[in-house]
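#structure-requests
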Amino acid sequence: MALKYSRQREIIKDFLMTRHDHPTADVVYMNVRQMYPNISLGTVYRNLTLLADIGEIRRLRVGDGVDHFDADISPHYHFICNRCGAVIDLDMENIDGIRDIANRNFDGCIQGYIAYFYGICPDCKNSMS
């Protein structure tokens, strides 16, 4: 079944494509509402969920109790700041070899993994100096 066109969904996805800070649904709503004042929070949540479910965006669950969203669905890794909570893309080489390591003592079949890196982001590190 083809997905019916939705202007609201397009606006939400277009907004996400301009961001690299992995906003929450509330942040998406507050920003999209400025351009599309009649949009509801429920509509934003539903469309973010749908976009994530069909693979057009990525939902990140980084342990802070809220979902973050990323329009970049290419394979890449994320850093989460323990101080300010920022979610940042990491520019690093591929670590897919970790699947081979995990498979060594596992009788099943590992098909994927999610790796998050935690610590102090550059902004927080600089403010501590």
